Amino acid sequence: MTKHLADHRTAPTGGRVKAFLTIARDRSESAWRGLWQRRFDRAEDNQRLVQYVRIEKGREA
């Protein structure tokens, strides 16, 4: 019995490495990184919900 067509792998050509290096060398995301990692200030109105979620997650403090 032979393997299914999906089980036959082709020889690697290095395309994944090339794509990874292209993304790694691209610096256009550096401007967005600051926005993604910025702290989000919660409004005082949401404190009840924030405390509820904290308790549900099992956090004490």
How does this model look, in words?
The chain has 61 residues and is an all-alpha fold. The protein has one domain (5-60). The protein contains three helices and no strands. It has helices at 15-25, 30-36, 47-57.
Question: What is this entry, summarized?
Answer:
The protein is mainly α and 61 residues long. 48% of the residues lie in helices and 0% in strands. The model has no long low-confidence stretch (mean pLDDT 78).
Gyration radius from CA atoms, angstroms: 23 Å
Number of helices: 3
Weakly predicted, low-confidence segments: none
Q: Which structural class do you get from the secondary structure elements?
A: mainly alpha
The domain count comes to: 1
**Percentage of residues assigned to helices:** 40-55%
Largest sheet: none
Map the helices and strands.
Elements: H1 15-25, H2 30-36, H3 47-57
Quick tags:
3 helices, 61 residues, mainly alpha
